[in-house]
Amino acid sequence: MVLLGGHIVVQLFPSAITYLALIPARTIPFVWNLITAGYVEQSLHGVVASTLGLLFIGKLLEPIWGSREFLKFIFVVNFLTSVCVFITAITLYYLRTQENYLYMPLSVFHGILSRFLVGIKQIIPDEELPLLKIKVEWLPSLTLLFSIAVSFFTLESMRYLPTLIFGTYMSWIYLRYWQRKPEKNLKGDLSDDFSFSTFFPELCRPVIDPIASIFHQMLYGRTEASNEAQGYTLGGASLPGSDPIEASRRRERRARALEERLAVDWLATASSAEGA
């Protein structure tokens, strides 16, 4: 409803895009567009694609995360992505002195779909797409790779590419370090199979891991004392969430929850068809 409502408002009142979209030159004082820009689609096909993605992919994540955490994920990642896009636009303007970086209205929701793919990667990384025979864990990476390739053939890549790149990365940061696990009173997912290097081919990982470890220390930032107080294992042993057995158990539980959800949806659809 929010997507459809935002699209209708922009179509009926075109000037509203000035206040709702992210226009870097006007973000100050219109700071609220760091939030609103992520929920406004300017094109009809964007509304359709975003709505379908939200219904189908969101339907898999919401039962596992819970409605509150699902909405929190969308809001936090959307805001952080907008902040990163704003900084990128300002930086590009100073580097290239082209005013279109400052005045181009940026407002898309379909970038959230790439963020959902990161969630799917976390939950069922080893599942394969039936027709393509591609593991789910590669969907975020392939989506970014395809988007970057397309950007070489379009003049408006600024409208979507930064949103996809930062949206994917911010989603991973949120799920890796910040998402709360009420059942364990912990945050994040520090398992090896959800590390940053898993977004890249195995050949690249020896190069990426040392760099990623620097940012890991910055983002994780726990002291040895606080780790010991909360029962974390140190001295070369695995941190919470990084134990392979525990990670495997979590994946199995998530996969079962997902299968149960799909089974319920299938039964509901079959019942509706019989009733018709």
From TrEMBL:
<feature type="transmembrane region" description="Helical">
    <location>
        <begin position="44"/>
        <end position="61"/>
    </location>
</feature>
<feature type="region of interest" description="Disordered">
    <location>
        <begin position="233"/>
        <end position="252"/>
    </location>
</feature>
<feature type="transmembrane region" description="Helical">
    <location>
        <begin position="161"/>
        <end position="178"/>
    </location>
</feature>
<keyword id="KW-0472">Membrane</keyword>
<protein>
    <recommendedName>
        <fullName>Rhomboid protein</fullName>
    </recommendedName>
</protein>
<keyword id="KW-0812">Transmembrane</keyword>
<dbReference type="GO" id="GO:0016020">
    <property type="term" value="C:membrane"/>
</dbReference>
<dbReference type="GO" id="GO:0005794">
    <property type="term" value="C:Golgi apparatus"/>
</dbReference>
<dbReference type="InterPro" id="IPR013861">
    <property type="entry name" value="TMEM115/Pdh1/Rbl19"/>
</dbReference>
<keyword id="KW-1133">Transmembrane helix</keyword>
<dbReference type="GO" id="GO:0006890">
    <property type="term" value="P:retrograde vesicle-mediated transport, Golgi to endoplasmic reticulum"/>
</dbReference>
<feature type="transmembrane region" description="Helical">
    <location>
        <begin position="12"/>
        <end position="32"/>
    </location>
</feature>
<feature type="transmembrane region" description="Helical">
    <location>
        <begin position="73"/>
        <end position="95"/>
    </location>
</feature>
<dbReference type="Pfam" id="PF08551">
    <property type="entry name" value="DUF1751"/>
</dbReference>
